[in-house]
Design a protein that fits this description.
alpha+beta, 3 strands
Length: 80
């Protein structure tokens, strides 16, 4: 459903923005994750306010190129 509004509980993470990636430190598991630019964008916009369709359109605007909605769904699956 493209109107689904993903919401990631970011309160369990310390987030550090780096030039080419997003670094996530999970406080509960003491694990570190690095996200590329696209996955980081999806992470930062999965706050319950934007739908998958809106995230897709905003990423297209930011990258100035077509982004398939399936990429957003795949990223959300991987982030879960």
């Amino acid at each position: 459903n493209k109107h689904f509004r993903p919401k990631i509980d970011s309160s369990k993470f310390v987030v550090q923005e780096l030039p080419d990636e997003l670094l996530l430190y999970n406080l509960a598991t003491n694990k570190v994750f690095t996200l590329n630019h696209t996955a980081g964008f999806v992470w930062q916009n999965s706050n319950g306010k934007m739908s998958v369709e809106q995230i897709t359109k905003e990423l297209e605007r930011k990258l100035n190129q077509y982004v398939p909605e399936e990429l957003i769904w795949l990223t959300l699956e991987r982030l879960s």
